Amino acid sequence: MLTSVIVPVKNRADMSARFIYSFREYHSDDIELVFVNDGSTDGTKVLLEHMGVTRYNSDVSKGFPSSCNIGASIAQGDFYIFVNNDVLISGNFVTPVLQAYQKDPNRLIGAELLEQDTGWNRFGELIVPYIPGWFMACSAEMFEDLGGFDEAYSPGDFEDVDFSYSAIQRGYRLCKVSVPIKHIGGQSFGYTPERRERTLRNRLYFKEKWGL
3-210: which CATH architecture? Predict the structure, then answer.
């Protein structure tokens, strides 16, 4: 079974370079590494051209959900791992994820599983558990069954809650796996007033979409 590791990126070529070098240190060459360059204005495009990875370059920024969907559309694998480039890799993270998948193929797998009230996933008495989008994995078949990420959440925020809830509604289970990877966080969007406004907008869209 071929695994595709899909990495959506926007700028921060330094982090993409570090990701690629670290990834190759701990993983074999038979894992497909797919980068989706979401309208970067730095040296990301040139970097990816010289690093020998599968890549898609967009001159216009389409957002995180769209980048993930594009990555899945060009990936050759039967299994997808979506991961941000703003992470620190200290070992092989693909093997434990595949082991969890082989135990139960009907799982949406993540490095985190948030089942508590995070401040934006409570709707009345309902708390929606979710796998954060910085590290999320599933079979290509499941991804297609769920219709990919909803691009209405672009440029980002809440698409991971939506994808997780969609998985639950279709009978899949959420699963956390311990992996040797650390999320630095907040490197692409940052935590700005504009992002706060977008988060609130997307939360309202999620609520209306699912009738919560």
Answer: Alpha-Beta Complex (3.90)
Burial category of 39 from C-beta neighbours within 10 Å (exposed 0-12, middle 13-18, buried 19 and up): middle
> What is the domain partition of the chain in residue ranges?
3-210
Reduced to 3 states, what is the DSSP secondary structure of residue 138? strand
pLDDT digits 0-9 by tens, 87-122: 999 999 999 999 999 999 999 999 999 999 998 899
pTM for this prediction: 0.94
Find all residues with CB under 8 Å of 123, minimum gap 6, and list them.
207, 212
Give the angle subtended at the CA of 96 by the CAs of 2 and 23, to the nearest 5°.
65
Token couple for 49: 């051209």
Chain centroid, CA 150 distance in Å: 13
Q: Cα 178 from chain centroid?
A: 16
Q: Single out the residue of 104, 108, 128, 103 nearest to residue 116, CA to CA.
A: 128
